[in-house]
Amino acid sequence: MTPDDLAPDWRKAWSAVDRAQFIPPVIWATTPDGYRRIDRADEPDVWEAAVDQDQPLVTQLDDGAEDGPGTPTSSASMPSLVARMLDVLSVRDGHRVLEIGTATGYSAALLSERLGDDHVTTIEVDPVLAEAGRLALHAAGYHPTVVTGDGTAGHPPSAPFDRIISTAAVRRVPPAWLEQCRPNGVIVTPWGTAYNNSGLLRLETDWAGGASGWFVDNVAFMWVRGQRRATHGRRLFGDLVRDEHEQQAEHSTTGVHPGEVGAEHPDFAIGLQLPDVDRRVYWGSGDAADEYTVWYLAEDGESWASVDYAPGMTEFPVAQWGRRRLYDEVTAAYRVWIDWGRPWREQFGLAVTPTGRQRVWLSDPDNLVAEV
């Protein structure tokens, strides 16, 4: 989606807010070889070109720690995705909006331009990011309510809200969002499982205190910090897969192509069935650059599996260790997806009760297929 596809009121707001004002001096841009650090002081033209592109820009690594492994923990979303999420939020004049994840402040600025400062509350868990976002907003002339705190708790002093939008993914829709959103309100959030983090969920709240709605798009956001995978920050080799595990693993082969199992829509459906399994893909390098291994890691650390791919293979090596046979579980879930009729992600919906119980349906709210 491009800004030109937005409704006129949003196009006006979009034209008034300059993304570059909200991007910090040091960013990391995605390249074929990983993340490239770009400092505006050293490479102003490169920095400006990166900011002008429709691409996400990493703005923080390792929650701001100096000695971390280099895991992205905050970013500025690609503008087309920001436009898409604001579009499905369906705001109207007079609406009060809560944003989860201030980050750079850019989305809060767009909301403030569209609705007015006094109708926007934005909350950020990281104190450093919250202060940077607040300063950027003020410098650009916007003064929404900026709160430093846990976004999953919402912000009761500003509630109730007509709309809630999260720029961080959740595995469980927080009950506080349901409590603080008016009936017939809208909640837009990235949603996923440990296995697959790709759903953009649009919920409509009801008078009973629950909400339900469809998955409307493919997105990938960082998790809210309190709902990260249990395997977050843990190294594959040494932490999750140890030498003694590999010696004890059972080995076999499969004729099921890993690329078929890992395609966009079956991957989402498998995650609904195995929400406590972390899936990772590691590519080779050099002469093996077109080879890869898919790893499946139980969040409790008690089981793992892997499957290898190389061009020309018709049988793919499998290894499984631990009390669960995770690769067998994955292929069984893949076959269930086939039995369901090979649905796309957007054919699924989710209902959540006031207490946070989540049920997923397929094609019809009465056709429940998973509880996550």
Task: Walk me through what this model shows.
This protein is of the alpha+beta class and 372 residues long. Among the domains are: 3-24 and 80-218, Vaccinia Virus protein VP39 (Rossmann fold); 243-340, Double Stranded RNA Binding Domain, CATH 3.30.160. 25% of the residues lie in helices and 32% in strands. The chain is built from ten helices and 19 strands. It has helices at 8-16, 44-52, 79-89, 106-115, 127-139, 175-180, 243-248, 258-261, 264-273, 326-339, and strands spanning 26-31, 34-39, 57-61, 72-76, 97-100, 120-124, 145-148, 161-166, 181-191, 199-205, 211-218, 250-254, 277-283, 292-298, 303-309, 316-322, 348-352, 358-362, 364-371. Strands 7-6-5-8-9-10-11-17-18-19 form a ten-stranded mixed β-sheet, sandwiched between helices. Strands 12-16-15-14-13 form a five-stranded antiparallel β-sheet. Strands 1-2 form a two-stranded antiparallel ribbon. Helix 6 links the parallel strand 8 and strand 9 (181-191). Helix 1 crosses helix 4. The longest helix is centred in the C-terminal third of the chain and has 14 residues, at 326-339. The radius of gyration is 22 Å and the shape is globular. It starts with 7 loop residues before the first helix and ends with a strand. This is Protein-L-isoaspartate O-methyltransferase. It comes from Allostreptomyces psammosilenae. Belongs to the methyltransferase superfamily. L-isoaspartyl/D-aspartyl protein methyltransferase family.
